[in-house]
Amino acid sequence: MFKTETHIHTMEVSPCSHIRAVAMVRRYASEGYSTLCITDHFQGNTLDALGDIPWADKMAIFLAGYYRAKREGDKLGVNVIMGAEFCFADSSNHFVAYGITKEFLDAHPELHKMTVKEFSVIAKEHGVFLVQAHPYRDGKCFPMTEYVDAIELYNSNPRHDNKTELAEALIKEIDIPVSAGSDTHRDEDVALSGIMTETEIKTAEDLIDCIKNRKVVLIRGERAE
Q1: CB 3.0–4.6 Å: which of 5, 68, 94, 218 could bond 21 by disulfide?
Q2: Are 10 and 69 within 8 A, CB to CB?
Q3: Per the structure, how many domains does the chain have?
């Protein structure tokens, strides 16, 4: 089985992260993961702090962690996939997106100022797969399954109450694909969750196919052997 981490934040881009991209890749390689998804925070306070510069320049800065991780991954034989964790204007929820590209980001300025509904329409048009992260976290998040392709059933970030039991109850009520991720920001978060697959995930398309068609085994809250 191949192990994939679906939810990572790098220090280069996400102010709350404590691990730089190169160190992140090396840590996960040592844990036997074949694939990493870099999902830095895409939100107002991060992007607005960059000042009054062209949107394309902001997107180049936003992707700095991904590009550094990708170069290191290429050296070590680890697949690194571009992603993002979006926050939108009308919701306290977080949404992890796979299948985004630099071209997609450049073509849609001020994405973070959209509503969830508005973004979900654009995502479907461009083949972007949307996963609602930690749908019950801290009692401040709530499911918006009408706008997403999957939910993150297990999120192992230890500094939040993710109320996993509520997510487990939810998927008994509705038919929706699920994923899992460590939501890595610090050393102690590395490789706590993720997914395992029979085939190696090398691209965003591979990842989307595996989650969408339920070809994943979830890793929950402990290091995978």
Answers
A1: 68
A2: yes
A3: 1
